[in-house]
């Protein structure tokens, strides 16, 4: 379903679409394709949901969103999908994932992220989320980020 | 300073950037400005480091394998370990967080086996154990990052 050209195309566009009048033509020239093929392949990869979104990737820290919290919650597995669905209804939540529990040392299975402009706002939003989704009964921790050692978008390499 | 045009470009084109031969013209027509204005505004956002790129966000684990990794490192040794880990080309988003597990990063590999190999290598090299936390479900459907740029 996905061929080598798709991988090469993904690798090429991951560097960012050129900011010129005909950006897809530029990508096409790099790969020896024509412009329309590039557009059609990207549209197809998006339709297949391999490309989750296609567009502007913002740098939230630079835009003033400096308080970044990861919240981890231990919820019953039988309720995890419905709790996650409720959490996702809040527009200040940026990501929501299930990850495996690690026994007593790290018993959490539900992770969500809040990027906010300051710590107090994020703490208020977490409070609001706990009330709206009835999370106070579960064990949870909030982990604010401190230093950023490395931040770079995921880079995928074309398959050999 | 962000102009109203900058704000529209930042907020409205995170999910569906136009897939047309002249996408910046398409945007210009949607916003009632000229193509040149859109091109220069995007160049500006890019130079000022407000955007990392215009491009794809690839669905996790649709290509290769990746996992969030957490480690508990004594404060005095954190910088050394963080530097060792950042040096891996397979690592992105390497952060210190306020917790006993204070180092969090995303590790990417071709497949699950390579992921395990890399983790063992990192554990051996740093001298600390690592928790591998692959994503089991992605609940977040509303895509992109909604910016409140009014203030």
Proportion of residues in extended strands of chain B = 15-25%
Low-confidence stretches of chain B: none
Number of helices of chain B: 5
In N-to-C order, the SSE pattern of chain A is HHHEEHEEHE
What's the alpha carbon Rg of chain A, rounded to whole Å? Answer: 20 Å
Q: N- to C-terminal separation of chain A? A: 16 Å
Largest sheet of chain B: 4 strands, antiparallel
Strand order of the largest sheet of chain A: 3-4-2-5
Shape of chain A: elongated
Q: Can you identify the CATH class of the largest domain in chain A?
A: Alpha Beta
What CATH calls the topology of the largest domain in chain B is Alpha-Beta Plaits
What's the architecture of the largest domain in chain B in CATH terms? 2-Layer Sandwich
Number of strands of chain B: 6
Reading side by side through the largest sheet of chain B, how are the strands ordered?
3-4-2-5
What kind of assembly state do the chains in view correspond to? heterodimer
Written account of the structure:
The complex is a heterodimer of chains A (160) and B (151). Chain A has helices at 4-13, 23-31, 35-47, 80-88, 119-132; strands at residues 51-58, 67-73, 93-98, 110-116, 140-150. Chain A has 160 residues and is α+β, with helices and mostly antiparallel strands. The longest helix of chain A has 14 residues, at 119-132. With 151 residues, chain B is an alpha+beta fold. Chain B has 2 domains: 4-47; 65-133, Alpha-Beta Plaits (2-Layer Sandwich), CATH 3.30.70. Chain B is 36% helix and 23% strand. The interface between A and B is large, with 74 and 75 residues. Strand 3 (93-98) of chain A pairs antiparallel with strand 6 (137-138) of chain B, so a sheet runs across the interface.
SSE blueprint and pairings:
The complex is a heterodimer of chains A (160) and B (151).
Chain A: H1 4-13, H2 23-31, H3 35-47, E1 51-58, E2 67-73, H4 80-88, E3 93-98, E4 110-116, H5 119-132, E5 140-150
Antiparallel strand pairs in A: 2-4, 2-5, 3-4
Helix pairs in contact in A: 2-3
Chain B: H1 4-12, H2 23-31, H3 35-47, E1 51-58, E2 65-71, H4 78-86, E3 91-97, E4 103-109, H5 112-126, E5 130-133, E6 137-138
Helix pairs in contact in B: 2-3
């Amino acid at each position: 379903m996905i061929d080598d050209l798709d991988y090469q195309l993904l690798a090429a566009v991951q560097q960012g679409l050129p900011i010129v009048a005909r950006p897809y033509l530029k990508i096409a020239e790099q790969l020896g394709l024509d412009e329309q093929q590039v557009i059609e392949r990207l549209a197809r990869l998006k339709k297949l949901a391999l490309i989750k979104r296609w567009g502007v990737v913002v740098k939230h820290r630079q835009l003033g969103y400096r308080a970044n919290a990861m919240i981890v919650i231990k919820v019953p597995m039988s309720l995890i999908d419905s709790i996650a669905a409720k959490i996702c209804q809040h527009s200040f939540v940026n990501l929501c994932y299930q990850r495996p529990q690690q026994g007593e040392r790290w018993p959490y299975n539900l992770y969500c992220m809040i990027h906010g402009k300051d710590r107090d706002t994020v703490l208020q939003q977490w409070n609001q989320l706990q009330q709206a989704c009835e999370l106070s009964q579960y064990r949870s921790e909030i982990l604010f980020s401190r230093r950023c050692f490395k931040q770079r978008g995921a880079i995928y390499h074309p398959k050999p | 300073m962000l102009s109203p045009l900058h704000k529209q470009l930042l907020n409205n084109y995170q999910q569906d950037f136009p897939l047309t031969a002249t996408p910046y013209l398409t945007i210009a027509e949607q916003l009632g400005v000229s193509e040149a204005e859109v091109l220069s505004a995007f160049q500006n956002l890019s130079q000022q480091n407000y955007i990392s790129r215009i491009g794809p966000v690839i669905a996790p684990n649709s290509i290769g394998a990746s996992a969030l990794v957490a480690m508990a490192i004594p404060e005095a040794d954190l910088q050394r370990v963080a530097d060792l880990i950042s040096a891996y080309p397979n690592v992105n988003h390497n952060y210190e967080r306020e917790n006993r597990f204070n180092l969090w990063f995303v590790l990417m590999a071709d497949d699950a086996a390579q992921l395990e190999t890399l983790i063992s290598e990192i554990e051996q090299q740093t001298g600390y154990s690592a928790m591998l936390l692959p994503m089991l479900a992605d609940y977040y459907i509303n895509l992109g990052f909604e910016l409140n740029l009014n203030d």
